Amino acid sequence: MAHSGINVLFEGRNLVRLFGGLGTTIEIAAVALVLGLILGIVLGVLRTFPNRLLRLLLRLYLEFFRIVPTVVLLFLFYYILPRQLGVNMPANEVATLVFALWTAAEMSDIVRGALISVPKHQRESGLAIGLNRWQLYRYVLIPQAVSLELPATINLVTRVIKTTSLLMLISVMDVINVGQQVVEANNQKYPTGVFWVYGIIFIMYFVIDYPLSWWAKRMDKKRLERANG
Amino acid sequence: MAKQILKVEHLEKSYRENHILHDINFSIDEGEVVALLGPSGSGKSTLIRCLNGLEPYQKGNVIFNGKPVVPTEKNWQKLRQQIGMVFQSYDLFPNLTVLDNILLGPVKVQHQSREAAKATAEKLLDQVGLREYENVYPRQLSGGQKQRIAIVRALALNPELMLFDEVTASLDPEMVRGVLNIISKLAQDSNMTMIVVTHEMNFAQQIADRVLFLEDGHILEQTDGTKFFVNPQTDRAKEFLESMDF
Ligand SMILES: Nc1ncnc2c1ncn2[C@@H]1O[C@H](COP(=O)(O)OP(=O)(O)OP(=O)(O)O)[C@@H](O)[C@H]1O
Ligand SMILES: [Mg+2]
């Protein structure tokens, strides 16, 4: 008689290992998001400056990270670049770097979009009271852009968290990778264990991402209501 | 003789091929009120925006307090504390309260202490009858109230010259009078030097010491306020006044 599949989770240290994997995933996502969002805000501001060369370079950066699939980026940074450049980084750090750079690229576009949609009159009124460029961004443009861009930012965050499921491809011991190992190790004893392992991983991602996307939706709705009312 | 605040010499402005302002020359003395009148598209906004560096110009000089302005962004930025401007669209910063809108310039640009700046701001708010609104956000105000606050925001920097560009043009008719009264009071009681662009001919007649009449980017005439409305020098100005039902 086959054992009930759910018990695979309570076999040995399986559950602890799965949560450990989740911890790694969250850590990489969190560090990458913090670094990426900050860098993205800076790049987004720079992309509204008049300097054409700067804008072109940042645009190329964005397009590169947008066009190249994340899987390819991970392979590129983990297998190819180290060999070419002779640097050796642990998989976790490579993953953090790739996700941070990707987040920064997407964030720069969100920030730029929000900044240029602040009405031109706001910019001129700021200049007219003698603000310099830095003060204009600091007190007038960025605060207004933030409320415009918040839903898009949260959506980006959920996307990044979801995409961390690719981490196993560069052998980071993330939750998916641990899950796979658990499934393989227990295949004989629990043939249906695979459903339970991926089921719990699904729930883990859901519990993290769903409140975020709910929040983003609610904010967007509120903003529409305010705009129409 | 009164001190000269601003002088414009041979100013030329174009957008690409499009020549907008042609050889503009005039000056304004301390305490003087100049009305800048002319048909739509004649270049009034463009000219007034050249005077605080919001628009670049290709040729000519702006001389402020006897010193020619070297037109760099940095120089204009400093001068804007002395040359206040209020626009047609009442664009208070929606992310700040009324008081913070007003204090931003004095505190961040002029580095006044918040207490001192607040005392000045409240005095000005009293003058425009909006003291009790200092802690509300702009979205809670009517257009006329917003425009009065925008005027206070500019005055809080204690400028020597004020530029008004059709500040009542987007207001509901019942709001217009209140805003115009503030500008008149500013001219009479505070003896503020100002350049006023307006479509309100009665108002212009009442406050203007001098009228600059602009058409197609040329100053066609500069006439005393008392004379212009009764007896304009050019036929074009005559037609303009008629078209304004004046
Ligand atoms: N940013 C711009 N780019 C190109 N042309 C412009 C720009 N701004 C204004 N113009 C042109 O300059 C001319 C003068 O415009 P301006 O806004 O100064 O006129 P105005 O006298 O203020 O008119 P109104 O009474 O309608 O406000 C117009 O022909 C206008 O089309
Ligand atoms: Mg205009």
UniProtKB/TrEMBL annotation, chain A:
<comment type="similarity">
    <text>Belongs to the binding-protein-dependent transport system permease family.</text>
</comment>
<feature type="transmembrane region" description="Helical">
    <location>
        <begin position="61"/>
        <end position="81"/>
    </location>
</feature>
<keyword id="KW-1133">Transmembrane helix</keyword>
<dbReference type="Pfam" id="PF00528">
    <property type="entry name" value="BPD_transp_1"/>
</dbReference>
<dbReference type="InterPro" id="IPR010065">
    <property type="entry name" value="AA_ABC_transptr_permease_3TM"/>
</dbReference>
<dbReference type="GO" id="GO:0022857">
    <property type="term" value="F:transmembrane transporter activity"/>
</dbReference>
<protein>
    <submittedName>
        <fullName>Amino acid ABC transporter permease protein</fullName>
    </submittedName>
</protein>
<keyword id="KW-1003">Cell membrane</keyword>
<dbReference type="InterPro" id="IPR000515">
    <property type="entry name" value="MetI-like"/>
</dbReference>
<dbReference type="GO" id="GO:0006865">
    <property type="term" value="P:amino acid transport"/>
</dbReference>
<keyword id="KW-0812">Transmembrane</keyword>
<keyword id="KW-0472">Membrane</keyword>
<dbReference type="InterPro" id="IPR035906">
    <property type="entry name" value="MetI-like_sf"/>
</dbReference>
<feature type="transmembrane region" description="Helical">
    <location>
        <begin position="195"/>
        <end position="216"/>
    </location>
</feature>
<feature type="domain" description="ABC transmembrane type-1">
    <location>
        <begin position="22"/>
        <end position="213"/>
    </location>
</feature>
<keyword id="KW-0813">Transport</keyword>
<feature type="transmembrane region" description="Helical">
    <location>
        <begin position="28"/>
        <end position="49"/>
    </location>
</feature>
<dbReference type="GO" id="GO:0043190">
    <property type="term" value="C:ATP-binding cassette (ABC) transporter complex"/>
</dbReference>
<dbReference type="InterPro" id="IPR043429">
    <property type="entry name" value="ArtM/GltK/GlnP/TcyL/YhdX-like"/>
</dbReference>
TrEMBL record, chain B:
<dbReference type="InterPro" id="IPR027417">
    <property type="entry name" value="P-loop_NTPase"/>
</dbReference>
<dbReference type="GO" id="GO:0016887">
    <property type="term" value="F:ATP hydrolysis activity"/>
</dbReference>
<comment type="similarity">
    <text>Belongs to the ABC transporter superfamily.</text>
</comment>
<dbReference type="Pfam" id="PF00005">
    <property type="entry name" value="ABC_tran"/>
</dbReference>
<feature type="domain" description="ABC transporter">
    <location>
        <begin position="6"/>
        <end position="241"/>
    </location>
</feature>
<dbReference type="InterPro" id="IPR030679">
    <property type="entry name" value="ABC_ATPase_HisP-typ"/>
</dbReference>
<dbReference type="InterPro" id="IPR003439">
    <property type="entry name" value="ABC_transporter-like_ATP-bd"/>
</dbReference>
<dbReference type="InterPro" id="IPR050086">
    <property type="entry name" value="MetN_ABC_transporter-like"/>
</dbReference>
<dbReference type="InterPro" id="IPR003593">
    <property type="entry name" value="AAA+_ATPase"/>
</dbReference>
<protein>
    <submittedName>
        <fullName>Glutamine ABC transporter ATP-binding protein</fullName>
    </submittedName>
</protein>
<keyword id="KW-0067">ATP-binding</keyword>
<dbReference type="GO" id="GO:0005524">
    <property type="term" value="F:ATP binding"/>
</dbReference>
<keyword id="KW-0547">Nucleotide-binding</keyword>
<dbReference type="InterPro" id="IPR017871">
    <property type="entry name" value="ABC_transporter-like_CS"/>
</dbReference>
<dbReference type="GO" id="GO:0015424">
    <property type="term" value="F:ABC-type amino acid transporter activity"/>
</dbReference>
<keyword id="KW-0813">Transport</keyword>
